[in-house]
Design brief:
There is one protein chain. The longest helix is centred in the N-terminal third of the chain and has 12 residues. The protein is 74% helix and 0% strand. The protein has one domain. It is an all-alpha fold and 38 residues long. InterPro entries: IS30-like_HTH (IPR025246). It holds the Pfam family HTH_38.
């Protein structure tokens, strides 16, 4: 996962966007996004 993806995940989570929506937007598995959140 690129630094840009990680940065976008952080920004979207800060806006209370759900993990599933973020995963869909990035074309990633929700578990991958959830793991990066931790």
């Amino acid at each position: 996962m690129s630094f840009a993806d990680l940065e976008e995940i952080g920004l979207l989570l800060a806006q209370c966007i759900g993990v599933h929506k973020i995963a869909r937007r990035l074309g990633r598995n929700p578990s991958t996004v959830s793991r990066e959140r931790a």
